[in-house]
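[Discussion] Sanity-checking designs against the backbone

I'm trying to build intuition for which residues belong where. Below is a structure token string of 389 positions. I'd appreciate it if someone posts a full sequence so I can compare it with mine line by line.
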């Protein structure tokens, strides 16, 4: 079976973890700040706060920006549920902005129209907007930043798919157009720390707030305490935080993997070019478009089959898996999940996201994928289309 995604672990990665296992620190040691510094330097940002998952990073990013039950957060319906759940964790309301069918990213024309409509009818505007860099391609962040200034909302980039990508010559994660950026290091992502995530920011206040929130809200810095220290053991809880810490084992793996991100992204782009070449003669398969002013990290390679319907979608994916191709679908629109339907969302709310879901298939893409395997993937897909479309 050719998986849709797979980690690439080197001997150096293994040795980095073994070295930590033999050291005095398995967690809360020197590797986490070393990892944070390495990521910050890689994406050209001032601060990085490592946590145990991108979900945790999204949660504490919302809290650091002051999201409460009085607020509303907007994101894309074409994402994993964590992109929306983070607002609900804070007690806030969630809403969505429909996508650009050609890229799978949030449609900024739809965002602007929704903001204008809210403003004209004196309805609340969002406290935070969370664009999702779907499949590794950055959103139109310059336009989004302009809207954030005009309408007064904060921006968290959900770049879980996009480390190693660039936008207008800025690294994703540099926070040139946002307040906070979040990355994921799950094994199927560009790089991995087994599980883990990180939040980057250029704001020292936001960074410190997230540092407190990831570790119980506890500090041992006298400058943050409400009374003098009782002794060298003393600490205070000054926030209601969480145990979202990354271990030194994971950080060591992350440090090693980070040295290969450029290599991973280069390979993924070459494989995407291979797929595009193989698909050049097909009118029945539409790859997602990548804009010229950005570099996609190509976490995923997604195609749309415009002739698919509810029944044939499942048949094509099942056929591909029977041929040894573990095709997948990213994503079921968040607003169609039962939990979100209980909140009042319904089918028809975001038609582009729903049409995209009906047509989308994720094809295998990972660093060790061979040209022979890619040729097999496209051959199987063409046969599936002949059979079912």
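Best answer:
Here's mine. Compare freely.
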């Amino acid at each position: 079976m050719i998986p849709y995604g797979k980690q690439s672990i080197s001997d150096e990665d293994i040795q980095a973890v073994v070295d930590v296992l033999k050291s005095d620190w398995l967690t809360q040691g020197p590797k986490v700040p070393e990892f944070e510094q390495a990521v910050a330097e890689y994406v050209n940002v001032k601060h990085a706060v490592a946590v145990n998952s991108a979900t945790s990073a999204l949660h504490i990013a919302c809290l650091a920006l002051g999201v409460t039950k009085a607020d509303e957060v907007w994101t894309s319906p074409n994402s994993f549920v964590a992109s929306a759940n983070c607002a609900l964790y804070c007690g806030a309301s969630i809403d969505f902005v429909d996508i650009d069918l050609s890229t799978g990213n949030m449609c900024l024309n739809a965002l602007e129209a929704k903001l204008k409509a809210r403003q004209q009818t004196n309805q609340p505007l969002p406290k935070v907007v969370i664009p999702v860099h779907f499949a590794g391609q950055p959103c139109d962040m310059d336009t989004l930043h302009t809207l954030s200034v005009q309408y007064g909302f904060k921006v968290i980039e959900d770049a879980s798919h996009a480390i190693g990508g660039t936008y207008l010559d800025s690294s994703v994660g540099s926070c040139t157009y946002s307040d906070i950026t979040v990355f994921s290091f799950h094994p199927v992502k560009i790089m991995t720390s087994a599980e883990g995530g990180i939040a980057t920011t250029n704001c020292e206040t936001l960074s410190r707030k997230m540092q407190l929130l990831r570790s119980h809200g506890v500090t041992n810095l006298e400058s943050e305490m409400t009374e003098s220290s009782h002794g060298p053991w003393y600490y205070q809880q000054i926030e209601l935080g969480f145990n979202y810490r990354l271990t030194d084992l994971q950080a060591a793996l992350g440090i090693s993997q980070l040295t290969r991100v450029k290599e991973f992204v280069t390979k993924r782009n070459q494989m995407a070019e291979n797929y595009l070449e193989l698909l050049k003669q097909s009118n029945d398969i539409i790859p997602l478009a990548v804009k010229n002013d950005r570099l996609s990290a190509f976490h995923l390679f997604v195609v749309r089959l415009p002739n698919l319907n509810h029944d044939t979608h499942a048949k094509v994916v099942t056929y591909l898996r029977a041929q040894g191709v573990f095709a997948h679908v990213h994503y079921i629109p968040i607003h169609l999940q039962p939990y979100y339907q209980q909140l009042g969302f319904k089918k028809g709310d975001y038609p582009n996201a729903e049409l995209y879901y009906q047509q989308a298939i994720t094809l295998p893409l990972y660093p060790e994928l061979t040209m022979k395997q890619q040729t097999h993937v496209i051959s199987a897909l063409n046969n599936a289309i002949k059979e079912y479309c």
